[in-house]
Specification:
Strand content: 5-15%
Bound molecules: carboxymethyl coenzyme *A
Radius of gyration: 24 Å
Helix content: 40-55%
Strand order of the largest sheet: 1-2-3
Number of helices: 17
C-alpha cells in the first residue's frame, strides 16, 4: 500500500533537484536559499540568517505550535478541512465498524492490523496484565472518598513507575513492549477501581474470560452476581468509543507524552503527564464540561440565550471547535449514529434534545459558521456515557483508557526516531537586561 511520501525531490533533466525557499533579509540585503522538504522548512536552517557574526541567528516564534511540526509520524493522519481521520491509513469509520479496540490498538502500535495468531498473542499478553499489585489497590484506597477519578488515575499511573523500575530502560525494545502490555492491560482496572473508590464499593477484580470492554463494564458495575453479563450493545458501543479516542496525532496530551518521554523518563511517568494534560477542559476534560453545560442550560428553550452569551464572550460552547478540524469531526458523526443504539437499550438521555438544539442553532449562526466551529468528539460522547450510567467525572478517564494506545505509539515512535532529541523549545526573552541590586 502506498505510503505518504514527500513531494521533496523533483526529477528534471539534470537529475534530482530539491525545492527551496529563497529569503532576502531586508536588514542586510543578504539572500538565502532554504531547502523545502515534506512541505516544511527546518527551523534550524534559519539560524544562519544573522545581522553580524555575534548575532544568535533567526528563530521562529510559534506559541501553541500553531504552525510547527514537532516530529515526523506514520501513525495518524487528519485532514481537518475534509473531516478525515485515518489510523495507519485506515479510515476511522471502517475501523469503528469492523474491528475491535484491541485490534486497532495493535494497528496503531505496530503499523499493521494483526494476523489471527498475532491477535491471539496480543490479546493474551494484555489479558495477563490486567491485574494490579495489591499495593496499588491499597495506594488507591488512600484517596479521599470524593477524590476526582481523573486525579486518582493520573496519580496511580505515576505510582506504577515505582512497581516496575526496569521500565526506565526505555531504549530496549523488549522492555518497552512489556510496559505497553502492562499499561494497556491495567488502565481499565485502575479506572474502574477509581470509580468504585468514589462509591465506597469493593473493587472488582478483572474477569479475563471477558473481552477488553466487557471486562471493564464488569469491574465498573458488577455487584453481587457470580458472573457479570455485559449487555452486548453497550460493550460494543464502549469498544467503538475506545477506538474513536485511540489516537489523534500531535494533540496536547500526545505532545506531553513525547515531551516527557524525550528525557527518557519511564512510560508510567510520561503517561501520567499525558493523562494530566488530557484532564483539562479544553482537551479530554471537555466531555465532562459538555454535560455540566447541558445541565446548566437545563431546557431547550434556554438554548438561544446561552448561544447569545457565548457570542458575547461569556464562556464557550463546550464540545465545539477544534484546532485541526474545520469541518464536522468524523468521530462525532459516528458517535451521533451510535447514540440511538445505546438509547434503545438504556432509554433516551433527556439532554439529547438540548444538545441537538445547540447544534442546530450553532451550525446556522454566523459566529460559528465564520469560525468553522463544528461539534467535536466530546459533544455527543458524554450523552452516551451518561446513558450507560457512567458518572460525569469518569468521562475524561474513559477518554484516557482509549488514548493509552496512541500515547504509547507516539512515545515509541519518538524514542526510535534518530532525529529526535530531548524536547527543549527556545524563548524570546523580553525581560530585564542584567541589572545590579
Ligand atoms: N465556543 C465559542 N467560541 C469558540 C469556541 C467554542 N467552543 N472554540 C473556539 N471559539 C472561537 C474563539 O473564541 C476564537 O474567536 P476569535 O477569533 O473571535 O477570538 C476562534 O473561535 C478560534 O478559537 P481558538 O481558541 O483560537 O482556537 P484553538 O484552535 O486555539 O482552540 C479548542 C481549539 C478546541 C481549544 C477550542 O475550540 C475550544 O476551546 N473548544 C471548546 C473545548 C472543547 O470542546 N475541547 C475539546 C476538543 S476535541 C477533543 C480533544 O481532542 O481534546
Amino acid at each position: 500500500m502506498e505510503q505518504m511520501t514527500a513531494k521533496t525531490e523533483k526529477k528534471n533533466g539534470e537529475g534530482v533537484k530539491l525545492d527551496t525557499l529563497k529569503i532576502t533579509d531586508s536588514r542586510t540585503g543578504k539572500q538565502y536559499e532554504i531547502p523545502i522538504q515534506d512541505d516544511t522548512v527546518k527551523a534550524i536552517d534559519l539560524r544562519q540568517i544573522k545581522v553580524n557574526s555575534d548575532d544568535f541567528g533567526l528563530m521562529t516564534y510559534d506559541p501553541a505550535f500553531m504552525n510547527t511540526a514537532s516530529c515526523k509520524s506514520k501513525i495518524t493522519f487528519i485532514d481537518g478541512d475534509k473531516g478525515i481521520l485515518l489510523y495507519r491509513g485506515y479510515p476511522i469509520e471502517q475501523l469503528a465498524e469492523k474491528r475491535s479496540y484491541l485490534e486497532v490498538a495493535y494497528l496503531i502500535l505496530n503499523g499493521e492490523l494483526p494476523e489471527k495468531k498475532q491477535l491471539t498473542e496480543w490479546t493474551e499478553h494484555v489479558r495477563m496484565h490486567t491485574f494490579v499489585h495489591e499495593n496499588v489497590k491499597r495506594l488507591m484506597e488512600g484517596f479521599r472518598y470524593d477524590a476526582h477519578p481523573m486525579g486518582i488515575f493520573v496519580s496511580t499511573l505515576a505510582a506504577l513507575s515505582t512497581f516496575y523500575p526496569e521500565a526506565k530502560n526505555v531504549l530496549d525494545a523488549d522492555t518497552r513492549q512489556k510496559q505497553i502490555w502492562r499499561l494497556i492491560g491495567k488502565v481499565p482496572t485502575i479506572a474502574a477501581f477509581a470509580y468504585r473508590h468514589s462509591l465506597g464499593m469493593p473493587y472488582v477484580y478483572p474477569d479475563n474470560d471477558l473481552s477488553y470492554s466487557e471486562n471493564f463494564l464488569s469491574m465498573m458495575f458488577r455487584v453481587a452476581e457470580l458472573k457479570y453479563k455485559p449487555n452486548p450493545v453497550l460493550a460494543k458501543a464502549l469498544d467503538v468509543l475506545f477506538i474513536l479516542h485511540a489516537d489523534h496525532e500531535q494533540n496536547c496530551s500526545a505532545n506531553t507524552m513525547r515531551s516527557i518521554g524525550s528525557s527518557q523518563a519511564d512510560p508510567y511517568c510520561a503517561a501520567a503527564g499525558a493523562a494530566a494534560a488530557l484532564y483539562g477542559p479544553l482537551h479530554g476534560g471537555a466531555n465532562e464540561a459538555v454535560l455540566r453545560m447541558l445541565d446548566e442550560i437545563a431546557s431547550k428553550d434556554k438554548v438561544p440565550a446561552f448561544i447569545k452569551d457565548v457570542k458575547e464572550g461569556k464562556g464557550r460552547l463546550m464540545g465545539f471547535g477544534h484546532r485541526i478540524y474545520k469541518n464536522y469531526d468524523p468521530r462525532a458523526t459516528i458517535i451521533k449514529k451510535m447514540a440511538d443504539e445505546v438509547f434503545e437499550v438504556m432509554g433516551k438521555n433527556p439532554k439529547l434534545e438540548i444538545a441537538l438544539e445547540l447544534e442546530r442553532i450553532a451550525l446556522q449562526d454566523d459566529y460559528f459558521v465564520k469560525r468553522k466551529l463544528y461539534p467535536n468528539v466530546d459533544f455527543y460522547s458524554g450523552l452516551i456515557y451518561q446513558a450507560m450510567k457512567f458518572p460525569v467525572d469518569m468521562f475524561p478517564v474513559l477518554f484516557a483508557i482509549g488514548r493509552m494506545s496512541g500515547w504509547l505509539a507516539q512515545w515509541q515512535e519518538m524514542l526510535t526516531d534518530p532525529e529526535q532529541k530531548i524536547a527543549r523549545p527556545r524563548q524570546v526573552y523580553l525581560g530585564y537586561q542584567r541589572r545590579n541590586l
